[in-house]
Write a structure and sequence with these properties.
five-stranded mixed sheet; single chain
């Protein structure tokens, strides 16, 4: 399983995006609705999304894995008594 992206809400999103571009080398992947998208060298449209907000929070974290690994995870979650609704997308 690999981290695909993280979406953060935070004050001064533009400044945070500039910081991630300059020393960390992420590339600008555009803006939409006040959210700054940054990408790396991989195949995904973005790795980090930074949305302006009054207080910091994590909006979402997305992972990628094989269908087999996803099935294993869903079974483990269900056996622990938690609802498991894996999303499979191409």
């Amino acid at each position: 399983m690999k981290l695909r992206s993280i979406e953060l809400r935070l004050p001064q999103a533009a400044e945070a995006a500039a910081f991630l571009r300059t020393p960390w080398g992420l590339a600008d992947a555009g803006q939409a609705g006040g959210t700054h998208y940054l990408r790396g060298s991989g195949p995904f449209a973005y790795l980090v999304a930074l949305e302006e907000a009054d207080a910091p929070s994590v909006r979402s974290v997305t992972f990628v894995c094989s269908e087999e690994r996803l099935g294993d995870l869903a079974a483990n979650v269900a056996s622990a008594g938690w609802p498991a609704r894996p999303e499979i997308s191409a």
